[in-house]
Amino acid sequence: MTELSPDQQPTGGLCPHCGAPGLRRWRPFCSKRCADVDLARWLRGDYRISGEDSLSSDAGEKDS
Ligand SMILES: [Zn+2]
After folding, report:
1. What is the pLDDT of residue 19?
2. CATH code for 11-48?
């Protein structure tokens, strides 16, 4: 029998990035890689609702 360290234990959920079983250490992700990818997306703002925001912010301010 192999004992898993607490960090290696599954969360019981799936990694939202790749669908592999999530580990507690990277919860809810399965690995640092998936956690990093997700964090990077957040930091770049990719999770913002796309649409009006990107177009309007540049266009309107030329005159002021
Ligand atoms: Zn993953």
Report:
1. 96
2. 3.30.50.10
Q: Residue 18 and residue 38: Cα distance in Å, rounded?
A: 11
Q: Domain ranges in the chain?
A: 11-48
- What is the tens place of the pLDDT at every residue in 5-36? 888 899 999 999 999 999 999 999 999 999 99
Residue 49 alpha carbon to ligand 1 centre in Å? 23
* Cα 58 to middle of ligand 1, angstroms: 35
Cβ(38)–Cβ(17) under 8 Å?
A: yes
Whole-number pLDDT of residue 59: 54
How far, in Å, from the CA of 15 to the mean position of ligand 1?
5
